[in-house]
Write a structure and sequence with these properties.
Layout: H1 2-7, H2 11-21, H3 54-69, H4 87-93, H5 99-102, H6 105-117, H7 122-131, H8 134-145
Helix pairs in contact: 3-6, 3-8
Length: 160
């Protein structure tokens, strides 16, 4: 059975291919910058679902992962949260070739909107990002490519 999965283009084989490329290494000493999140150039050409929202969901997860990587830093109560650390990430994204990479910009837009409209909520977002590990991000991405709901939603209740 395993041999068939590895040599055929079945949904199971496609899912296995995605599983191997959706690796997050945030915090790994040997990685720098965007190398710590999956590279869209390694992605298979199709999703293991017919759900058209799979690509959008994956873009959201990749955006959250990049935000975790280049997140605003927590500050003491009463201090301002700065977003300028994301400048390098935005510069990197201007040079990408894949739409899934560009989809991450939507997550940045949400953070900027929050910073402008409800900056007091940024520490909650930062704490939620800090709580996510690489395994959590991998599970979220695998759910997204299969058209499943992605949880947790780090913005839940923060954008109202």
């Amino acid at each position: 059975m395993t041999r068939d999965i590895l040599t055929s283009d079945t949904p199971a084989r496609l899912l296995l291919r995605w599983k191997h490329v959706l690796r997050f290494r945030i915090g790994a000493d040997v990685c720098t910058g965007l190398d710590q999140i999956p590279n869209a150039e390694d992605f298979p050409d199709e999703f293991p679902t017919d759900d058209l929202a799979a690509g959008y969901g994956l873009g959201e997860v990749l955006g959250v992962a990049a935000l975790k990587l280049f997140r605003p830093w927590p500050v003491s109560p009463g201090e301002v949260v700065g977003l300028d650390v994301m400048g390098a990430w935005l510069e990197d994204l201007t040079h990408v070739k894949h739409a899934s990479d560009r989809a991450r910009l939507q997550v940045v837009g949400r953070v900027v909107e929050m910073a402008l409209c409800a900056p007091d909520r940024l520490p909650v977002l930062i704490a939620r990002l800090d709580a996510l590990g690489n395994d959590d991000l991998h599970r979220m991405a695998m759910d997204a490519i299969q058209g499943r709901p992605v949880v947790p939603d780090v913005f839940e209740g923060l954008m109202e």
